Automatic annotation (TrEMBL):
Belongs to the small GTPase superfamily. Rab family. GO terms for molecular function: GTP binding; GTPase activity. It comes from Spumella elongata. This is Uncharacterized protein. It comes from the Eukaryota. SUPFAM superfamilies: P-loop containing nucleoside triphosphate hydrolases. The keyword Nucleotide-binding applies. It holds the Pfam family Ras. Keywords: GTP-binding, Nucleotide-binding.
Length: 120
């Protein structure tokens, strides 16, 4: 199994590629079926720098709201990041580590609000 011994998993999609976001729910279900119940998951929309650099008005990007909806549905933290600009990268990792250290409180099995932390 890909997840053997994993304590935390970052699911990263490319905000410039809608298909990558469409695959996220498959991966979340795969994790739920094959990983430990204690594994912590964070959802990351990466390459946000390409939104502002875009000059093609016909280019469709993943909407931030869709990422937030998925995060709330599964009770996982959500971040939009730019690895190129180092935007939100550190806080995304630190949040996942904090969830691991706390044993998942506030993460995958959270309250009725979904327990999602969103940063965009």
């Amino acid at each position: 199994s890909y997840y053997k011994g994993a304590q935390g998993i970052m699911l990263v999609y490319d905000v410039t590629d809608r298909a990558s976001l469409a695959n996220i729910e498959y991966w979340i279900k795969n994790i739920k079926n094959h990983a430990s119940d204690q594994v912590q998951v964070a959802l990351i929309g990466n390459k946000t720098d390409l939104r502002s650099a875009n000059t093609d008005p016909t280019k469709k990007f993943c909407e931030t709201e869709r990422g937030k909806e998925i995060a709330v549905k599964y009770g996982i933290p959500f971040f939009e990041t730019s690895a190129k600009d180092s935007f939100n990268v550190e806080i995304a990792f630190l949040t996942l580590v904090e969830h691991i250290a706390l044993g998942g409180s506030g993460s995958t099995n959270s309250s009725s609000t979904g327990g999602a932390t969103t940063h965009s």
